[in-house]
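Honest question from a wet-lab person: if I give you the sequences of every part of a complex, can you actually get the arrangement of the whole thing, not just the pieces? Trying it with mine:
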Amino acid sequence: MTTSDTLEAKPFGGHKPAPATLDFLATRHGLLIDGVWTESAKGERIETVDPATGLVIASVAAGDASDIDRAVAAARRAFEGAWGRTTGAERSRLLTKLAQLIARDADLFFELEILDNGMPAALSRMIVDGAVDLIDYYAGAARRIEGTTTASPEHLVAFGGEALTYTTREAVGVVGQIIPWNVPLSMACLKLAPALAAGCAVVLKPAEETPLSTLHLGKLIQEAGFPNGVVNVVNGRGETAGAALVAHPDVDKIAFTGSTEVGRLIVREAATTMKKVSLELGGKSPVVVFPDADLDLAGPGVAMATFFLQGQNCMAGTRIFVHEKIHDALVERIKAFAGAMKVGHGLDPTNQFGPLISAGHRARVLQRIEEAKASGAELVLGGAPLDRPGFFVPPTIFTRTRPDMKVWREEIFGPVMSIQTFGDEDLDALARRVNDSPFGLSGSVWTRDLSTAHRMAARIRSGHVSINCHGAVASNIPFGGYKESGWGREFGREGLDLYLETKAVTARL
Ligand code: NAP
Ligand code: MG
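Yes, you can. This is the full assembly:
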C-alpha cells in the first residue's frame, strides 16, 4: 500500500476543487419542498464532512416531522394535480432532459461525490456516468408502461353475452424514499428514476452524511421542468425525518436502502398504515473459488469484490470460499493486489482506495477487526488504522476463519475479508455452507468449468450472482435480496414495477 498525502489535515487533501464546486459548498443549502428551497421549520442544520480529511465542507438544512408534513402535502397535491395525468411520453421527455443536465454538470457531481463520500476518482466517474445511463434507461421505460387483456369471467359471457377484461398500470402514488451514504448519487437516481417514470410523486430523504449530490440533483429536477412538488428533498436525521416519513399516513409506499436493522423498523411501522414497502438491505456475500479458476483473474477480482469502495458496499463479497489446493496461491495474489492499492484523497486520480464514511464508522470497523483477532482468525494483511487525517482503515484480510466467528457471519461494511477453505465435497454440500447466512444479496463463482459455474450459480440463494467477476450491475439488470437482504428488485423492468399498481377492469358489453 502506498500513500500520497501528508500527516496534517489540509482542506480537500491539498487538492483544488473547481470554482463551481467551491461555490456549491459555500452555498447555504435548504430543503426542496413544493419547488422552493426553504430553511427547515426549526432552523436546524447538519454539517457535512470530507471523510478523507475529517474537515467540515458544507452545511445543509435538517428537516424533521413538520418539514416532512409539508413535503408530503406538496407531493400529494402534485400527484392529484396535473402530474398525475401526465402521459408516459411526457414523463419520458422530462427524464431525458434530466439525464442531459446531469451529463452537463458531470464534473460538479464528480467532485461532490468524492468530497462528500470519500470515494476514489475512477469510481466517482463511473457513478456519474451510471446516473446518466439510469435516468436515460427509465426515460425509455416510461413509454412502455402497458397492461394486458385477458379472458372475462365465464358467468358474464355465458348465454352469448359479451365482455372485455383488461389491465392498466397506475402509479402507486406518493412515495417516501430513504437512502444510505455509500453511493449517494446512484442511490438517489435509482430511487427517483423509476418512481418518476411511473408517475409517482416523491419525498426523498438522503443520508445525513452525504446530502450534497442529491441537493444539486434537486436543482436539476427543477431546471428540467418537473412540476413543483413532484420531487421534494428533505435532508435530516433518520430517527426524525426518516421515521416521520415512514409513519406518515398520506404516504402510499416507502422505498428504502440501508441496514437490515432499520429495514426491520420500517416494516413494523409500515404495518400500522399498511404502506407498500420495498427494501434493499445488507449483505455478506459469498465468493466461491474453484481449483481450476484463472488465478490471475481471481486474485484482483476477489480483492475488489471485498475492497471496492472500501467494502462499504452492500454487494461486497466478504465470505471467501477457496479450494484448499489453491488457498495459498490465491491469498498471495489477493494480498499483492490489495497491498499495492494507493490510498488517499479521491481528488488525486491516482488514488484507488479512500476513507470510511465517518469517525464513528471507522471505530465500529476497527472494533470488529479487534474482535476477529481475539477470536483466533489469522490476520494476513492490514488490521490497524492508518496514521493520517481522515477515516482510513486499510484492506484487511483474515484467513482460517470459522463459520461461528462474528467476522464471518456479520456484515461489517468495511474493508474486511474473511476466508475459509473447502475440499472435494460435492456442490450440494458446498452450497449448504455457502448459504449458511441470514443474507442473500450477491455472490460470485470463479471457475473455468462452464458446468460447475452454472450449477453453483443455481445453488446460491441470492438475488444476484456473477461468474468470473463480482457485482456485475447495470441499469437493466435486476438487483435485490433473498432472505434478510430485502424485498423486491431494483434496476430494470422490475425496478419500475415497484412503483406501479395493476388495475383489472371488466366491462359487460
Ligand atoms: P442505515 O443506518 O440503515 O441508514 C440508511 C438510511 O436510513 C439513512 O438515510 C438513515 O438516516 C435512515 N434511517 C436511519 N434510521 C431510520 C429510522 N428509524 N427510520 C427511517 N429512516 C432511518 O444504513 P447505513 O449505515 O447508512 O448504510 C449501510 C447499510 O446499507 C448496510 O447494511 C448496507 O448493506 C446497506 N445497503 C444496502 C444496499 C442494497 O442495495 N441492498 C445498498 C447500499 C447499502 P441517517 O443518515 O440520518 O442515519
Ligand atoms: Mg460527507
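Two things worth pointing out. The chain has two domains: 10-281+487-504, 285-475. The mean pLDDT is 97.
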